[in-house]
From TrEMBL:
Residues 1-29 form the signal peptide. Coiled coil: none annotated. Residues 409-523 form the Hint domain. PANTHER family: HEDGEHOG, HEDGEHOG PROTEIN. PROSITE patterns: INTEIN_N_TER. The keyword Metal-binding does not apply. It comes from the Bacteria. InterPro entries: Hedgehog_Signaling, Hint_dom_N, Hint_dom_sf, Intein_N. Gene3D superfamilies: Hedgehog/Intein (Hint) domain. Keywords: Signal. This is Hint domain-containing protein.
Amino acid sequence: MQSTHRLVNFLFFLMALLLALLPIAAAFAQKPVKTEIIPLFDKVPAPPTVPNCTLKLPAGFADLERQVAQLSQTIASSRTAEQSKEEADMKAVSQRVTEAGVENMSEAQKLAYMQQAANIPGSNAQAVQLAQQMQDPAFTAKFSQMSDVEKAQYLQKQMAAPGSTQQRMVNNPAFQAAQADFMQQMQNPGFRAAWEKKSEAEQDAYMQQLMRKHGLDETQLKAVAGPAKTTAPLAPLVATAAMEANAKLAGIIAAEANSPDAFLRLQQQLQASLEAVSKEAAARPRVEAREGDCQGQQRNYDQYRSYQKQRLDLMAKYMPQLAAAWQARKKELIARSTPFQTELAKIHYGDDIKRPQEKAFVSSLAGGQQLMLQEITQLAGYSQAIYELNSKYCELTADYNKPFKCELATCFPPSARVNLPDGRQVHISRIRPGDEVLGYDAAMGRLRPVRVQRVDIHSDHDYALVQLTIGTPAVYADLGTAAALATPAIKLLMTPNHPIITADRQALRADQLQPSDEVLRLNENEVETTHLADRQPAGTAWEVYNLRTETGNYFVSGVLVGSK
């Protein structure tokens, strides 16, 4: 009765298959590689269990990444003889479909054309004839006026080969009546939903009842269908165990998509804790400490170190937990991948598959190997994440261990002369925020007006000054050029820590500038290089000034200096 049931269902639901479009691209295919993938899990470098600043990222990560990529590419590009033929056939069909302009056909024309061109179920001499009819506008107009039952009956008759079981079935009046009754019921959404929930046995029982209602009993069905063919029982499918193991592995991986594993949960906890520390630090009141305010700077330094210590403690706490979670994850991945690897090896990586019914399994088995490679990549990614955490810990440790150093004021006495864009010079004590002074665009190598954003004034105590003499002949042997004419010397008074901008964009303290360093100075509307000639202590000043500009620099007596 099962075969009769399937035949009836095929005929009853033929009309439901309104469109069967082939993919434009070749069908996806791949073939397993004859390689044990499980050993690759052991090639993933193990992560550190505690912070260790002597560690570097192992080269094994890059080597493993290359090996996994090569295996994945080999799997994806390998084909069985059947797969290669199917791909070639699909490409040929795709080309014919494109050339025939199927995209401009009606739905009915597409169905008929695809049956004819692609050799899908129903493709025979009758399908060819139906395809020709469907491309006739007059016929398609008439066909569209038929009821669903009439369409189904017509298609069944046209598609059934002469003398076939299908033809005897569709020509039987009792069957036609049962079919019409069934299709009428299928118009009811409630009936359709209930039908789809029935088991095959329940559907089969219902069909028997419906056909008896219309006078078609089991004996008549067998008579219509003709004598059953006796076939020898098929041997068990050789790939069943491997396919089941593959399905189980894929199911576990799919279930994890919305449920982070223990390692990821720990990572999320660490990230949340670090973010909480950052928010707490941002919420703390912080008073800006000016240059020279050593007490204020010390307070901010201690507060910053406290924040860094909290972050370091969290990293040191979570790193052993993450390493343990990684080890557990490795065991878990190996345990769930091993059954598939074992079953795949038993069938010699698909070479034992000979029956046509199992040929389609080859791609799925190759997909299982791809899943295992993804598991290895995940494990490597988890280990790398711990190495990155270790690296970040070491960076923070180096920052945390930096000793406190008070940032003293970097300034000029009130009489220092600042260059303006119009060529004038004014005392720095007369400059106000919003004024424009002459600055330098180092990236473009040109002078430009820059706006003063802030003026720093310090008068807390007497500030030590140094006098620089700038502008001398190029008498340094390593310059490799002939001696240049002497340039007029410029004398600058400033605090010893004020930065001087050099030609190579360094900002060197006034007390650390060397005669070999190239200093930038104005020469009319251009900038030229010159050198330090002399440096001498120059007493103190009770009040000093500094400008903060858009470019971070400005000119004092024609020499380019930094804002800080």
